[in-house]
Amino acid sequence: MPGALPIVHGVSLSPFVRKVRAALVEKGVEYELASVMPGSPDESFRSISPLGKVPVYQEGAFSVPDSSVICAYLERRHPSPPLLPADDEGYARVLWLEEYADTKLVEVFGPLYSQRVIQTIVFKQPCDEAVVAGALRDLVPPAFDYLESELSEDGWIVGDAFGLADLTIGAMFVGFRHAGEFVDAERWPRLAAYVARVEARPSLASLIVEEEASLAAL
Amino acid sequence: MPGALPIVHGVSLSPFVRKVRAALVEKGVEYELASVMPGSPDESFRSISPLGKVPVYQEGAFSVPDSSVICAYLERRHPSPPLLPADDEGYARVLWLEEYADTKLVEVFGPLYSQRVIQTIVFKQPCDEAVVAGALRDLVPPAFDYLESELSEDGWIVGDAFGLADLTIGAMFVGFRHAGEFVDAERWPRLAAYVARVEARPSLASLIVEEEASLAAL
Fold first, then answer.
1. Same domain, B116 and B201
2. Domain count for chain A
3. CB contact at 8 A, B112 and B132
4. In a 3-state reduction of DSSP, which class is residue A63?
5. pLDDT per residue as tens digits for the range A148-192
6. Is residue A109 helix, strand or coil?
7. What whole-number distance in Å separates Cα of residue A142 and Cα of residue A137?
8. Is the pTM of this model over 0.95?
9. Closest partner residue to B93 among A64, A77, A96, by Cβ?
10. What does the pLDDT average to over B20-40?
11. Domain assignment of residue B17, given as a range
12. Among the four residues A28, A46, A194, B181, which has the most C-beta atoms within 10 Å?
């Protein structure tokens, strides 16, 4: 299929799909989104996603799963504009913060997202606010303290340019926003201002608007 | 400290520490191992490992956690010999198999390792063989089927050169070996031969011998 666009397999409300979609926008790469739920038993999906997870990125006969692997591939395939720093230590620091967001922030925001978004908006079931309150009390503060300690008063989290760490942290904070929560600017002033800057980035802002519309339509 | 060696913080029986140590040997980088248990409350450790995990890699004032991030950093800092392919698709495939080993193989081997090694050898407690049998029956076969399907009859798992995917899969299979298990060569002939080749690699073989001696001394 000459001229066929690359395909992102997944669902738009997955933070990992959001991260890859934002990376593609940053890279100026057009793509199609092929809707598939994580865990889908569909055989053609399983053939490209051995663990049944989303996203999977496909270019013709080539495909690769895992948002971090996909972003590393995109950086090689489409080096400009770069999403990773040229210096070795900055590069390592960005990859570490990407990993932190992919694991720790997902764990911290998970209970909020599953209650306020999946349970309430998608399945129209009552929200267990005790679960939400527990996560806000016990899980959120140590993570926000850590991010606050890594941030400056302005700019991006590593070096001078917007990059993969900002994009990944931002993609996860969109889930916090969908859950109806915002960073307390009195307690975490740098983080609150940073999340606002990241969410205003066109690559993420366009996904926020699209996803809010799809949530409102449910 | 001119001439000070880089430091790997962690314990030798962690598969992720083993992976980084093998990568350093492959790269010809001398290092020191600073023994610290994952979850240690030691403040100087926590200052370089926000999640309390091992390994952390340190070069003077610079440090970075997470075995995958460390290996990506080492590839940039010490490009020769390469552990990642030059072509984009091979690069993505190696990173995906690294991720598969780091998550799925660790999940599959975890019950075996915790019973046969941690519980029995380290803590001198009875092994719950029902847990072991359950993992061997339910978890191991799908993972071994997948790896078998990705392998050729000889050589390494991606391309012509030994690389990060082989090293990571090998590091995880050392845990399977410590648990007293070996790949059934009748059921998974390619995988059995591959694991034998990977474990004979000097970088991993030297760690196997060292770790078996330390387990025997417990």
1. yes
2. 2
3. yes
4. strand
5. 999 999 999 999 999 999 999 999 999 999 999 999 999 999 999
6. helix
7. 10
8. yes
9. A64
10. 97
11. 7-77
12. A194
